[in-house]
Structure formats: structure tokens, C-alpha cells
UniProtKB/TrEMBL annotation:
Residues 41-62 are annotated as: Disordered. This is Pleiotropic drug resistance protein 1-like. The lineage of its organism: Eukaryota, Viridiplantae, Streptophyta, Embryophyta, Tracheophyta. InterPro entries: DNA/RNA_pol_sf, RNA-dir_DNA_polymerase.
Length: 151
């Protein structure tokens, strides 16, 4: 109803939706074309289903003790490492030709803020024993990757 006037929305059957690939769209799309997709669906929500879905999201109370026990039992797997893993029987190294000089690669230039963040992270990992100082003449590149959440 629009005011006191009854309005009936009717679709045009010639505009049925059909699945097509992006490649097909880009081949047929012209500069002045515009596209819109409107889809109306009737959605009914009854209160019983709403409460049930909340319970499913939160997890059933009866399963929580089992999960807590698993987390307690394997808590070491979820903690930050405090040292390097134990030495293995076979140590890894890269064989090089005798007297071969390392490749000279210029480091990627970061801004002041990024450099400070790298220093902070490297220091934390050194103190935690996750990494150690090396004597390799080869460079060890460091990359900062932005998280999806912006952090």
C-alpha cells in the first residue's frame, strides 16, 4: 500500500535470472551499460527456530566440559612457543659451490613505522627463543603482511 492506493509489483518474465560467468559478462558488457540485481524472497522466522539457532551458535552446554578438557589437556599446543624446537638428528643446510659469494640483494625499504614494528617483532621473537641470531652471509628478508582486520 502506498498511502491509500494499493500497489502491485509484477516482474517481467523476460528478465529471468540465469547463471553466467564473469568472462561472458565482460565480453558482452559495453561502456554505458548498467546492471542491477534485485531479488525478493519471503522469509518467515518463528520464535522457536530463532531460539534453536541461538543454541546452535553458542554450542550445547553438554559439549562444553568435553571441549574444556581437551583444551586443558593440550594447552601446550595453544601457547606461544618459548624456545626453538629440539635439535633433530639431521640438520638442514644449503650446499653451495666453494668460494661462491652470496647474491647481493638490496633490502626492501620500509617506512619508519614499519621498521619500528619489525624491530619490535624481531626482538620479541629473539627473547622468546623463536628465532636466533645467525652468521649466514645470505640475507633474510622480512615481509610485513597486513591482516584482514586491518591490524
Amino acid at each position: 500500500m502506498a498511502g491509500k492506493t494499493q500497489v502491485i509489483l509484477e516482474g517481467d518474465s523476460s528478465f529471468t535470472k540465469a547463471e553466467c560467468s564473469l568472462k561472458t559478462i565482460s565480453k558482452t558488457w559495453e561502456r554505458e551499460d548498467q546492471g542491477f540485481l534485485l531479488e525478493f524472497q519471503n522469509v518467515e522466522i518463528d520464535e522457536d527456530n530463532e531460539e534453536e539457532s541461538k543454541r546452535e551458535e553458542e554450542g550445547e552446554e553438554s559439549n562444553l566440559p568435553m571441549i574444556r578438557n581437551l583444551l586443558k589437556r593440550f594447552r601446550g599446543l595453544f601457547e606461544m612457543p618459548k624456545k626453538l624446537p629440539p635439535r633433530r638428528v639431521v640438520d638442514h643446510w644449503i650446499l653451495t659451490v666453494d668460494e661462491q659469494k652470496p647474491i647481493n640483494v638490496r633490502p626492501y625499504k620500509y617506512g619508519y613505522i614499519q621498521k619500528e614494528e619489525i624491530k619490535k617483532l624481531v626482538l620479541e621473537m629473539l627473547q622468546a627463543g623463536i628465532i636466533r641470531l645467525g652468521r649466514s652471509p645470505y640475507s633474510n628478508p622480512v615481509l610485513l603482511v597486513k591482516k584482514q582486520d586491518g591490524g
